[in-house]
């Protein structure tokens, strides 16, 4: 009888220990769940930041192509545009805000274009907090994340090819070197640009040679409908 009472006494003393151990394990599980929940919110914020930065850089890349195309058509300088610079103010950060919103975040800061290399740095804040957990304060805790996207030129300008035709020495042609006072076929200047047609200036612009990722590319100002896509001129990627 005495031994039986001792076993019951031991069991009664061990029961609170079991309760404490189970409670501790349960709290640990809930704490790990809170950490996982916070990590998921953080990952969502980083995804939104990555998407926003890439959107800004891609929009800027499209604007570079448009500016490059217009510069060639107008005969103005395009060297800086080919290097990813020279646009001035841009609306690329508006694209960043839109894409961040699509991913459940708000842009709190957008820098760009930052030069050398040309890039956009975007910081976002998630709209939804981590939520209520066993860890105090998480119900109002939002995740913040930053991402940087770089615009890298794929092409470099090639020097123009030297002329290959023989110089006109004035001794051949349809009277091009002889002035008989009658105008002839080559002496009369009717102001129409040569063949009696309209001189629109397009034929005066030589082709532009580019070297893009090791391949030669020729842009003909007279056929800008064949102008390369933005992705062929510039690459966009996230910075490490």
UniProtKB/TrEMBL annotation:
<dbReference type="Pfam" id="PF13400">
    <property type="entry name" value="Tad"/>
</dbReference>
<feature type="transmembrane region" description="Helical">
    <location>
        <begin position="15"/>
        <end position="35"/>
    </location>
</feature>
<dbReference type="InterPro" id="IPR028087">
    <property type="entry name" value="Tad_N"/>
</dbReference>
<feature type="region of interest" description="Disordered">
    <location>
        <begin position="131"/>
        <end position="215"/>
    </location>
</feature>
<keyword id="KW-0472">Membrane</keyword>
<keyword id="KW-1133">Transmembrane helix</keyword>
<keyword id="KW-0812">Transmembrane</keyword>
<feature type="compositionally biased region" description="Basic and acidic residues">
    <location>
        <begin position="166"/>
        <end position="206"/>
    </location>
</feature>
<feature type="domain" description="Putative Flp pilus-assembly TadG-like N-terminal">
    <location>
        <begin position="12"/>
        <end position="59"/>
    </location>
</feature>
<protein>
    <recommendedName>
        <fullName>Putative Flp pilus-assembly TadG-like N-terminal domain-containing protein</fullName>
    </recommendedName>
</protein>
